[in-house]
Amino acid sequence: MSLKAGAIKQAAGRFRRLDQIRGAAVLLMFVHHFCFDLQYLYDVDLGLGRAFFYPLHLLIVCIFIACSAFTAGLSKRQSKRGLWRQIAAAVLLCFLTSLLSLLSGQELYIFWNMLMLIALARLIIYLSQDLKRPLLASWLLSLGAILIASLMTKLYQNSALSQNYPLPAQADYLALWPWLLYFMAIYSWVYFHPPKKLARAENQSKLRFSPLAFLGRHALIFYFVHQGFFILCLEGFTRAKNYFSS
């Protein structure tokens, strides 16, 4: 780890400014999903459509992936504990959405989304970090992953399996191309040019409570629980309204 990156890391246990940016993305995610649930699950006409939801979704994904790549570039080395926690979260998300889909009869599966992509990127960096040219190796592995995924998709689509065993619809699908390369581009830039301004900002920040930093620090927990909480509240409100209006 370079001296500049080390100074940034030591300024606070975490990168406070990045936590605040990630926390802002969590708030945007709350707005996106709450409005989506109101309009499409509970038939509340908000007058919103693709022109609202798609750009907002794109912005949220860009921020989350950029923050993860930025942190990876500053840290230089991926810890095994953090990597396995990310992979476990991705597997748990896949399991929970599959279980929910089977119980509800709706296709709410998430087999591959932003969480899985970030876990793959961190795995690639972890596998490359002890090699002679780690950055080059990580790029080659990323390109290899994209090529293999594209080849397997084509083979599946052109085979009888796609007719006899079609895959269920997925929610929040995120393609490897171009998002994995977007992660690697930011990671590579920060790897070679860790920003000095961030180090100064971290050193000058007071250790007071920041709601955005709190959201960003616990983004994974909020990611898992927020949608269920929204639906629980909306369902409770709807049933109470129907009860008192009958």
Q: Can you walk through the features of this model?
A:
The chain is an all-alpha fold and 246 residues long. It is built from 11 helices and no strands. It has helices spanning 3-11, 16-41, 50-75, 80-104, 114-128, 134-157, 161-164, 176-192, 196-204, 211-217, 219-245. It starts with a helix and ends with a helix. Mean pLDDT is 87; it is low at 1-12.
Shape: globular
SS strand fraction = under 5%
Assembly of the depicted chains: single chain
The largest β sheet comes out as: none
| Fraction of residues in H or I helices | over 70%
Order of helices and strands: HHHHHHHHHHH
How large is the radius of gyration?
20 Å
Separate helix tally: 11
Tell me the distance between the termini: 66 Å
Poorly predicted regions: 1-12
Mean pLDDT over the full residue set? 87
* Number of E-state strands: 0
Structural class: mainly alpha
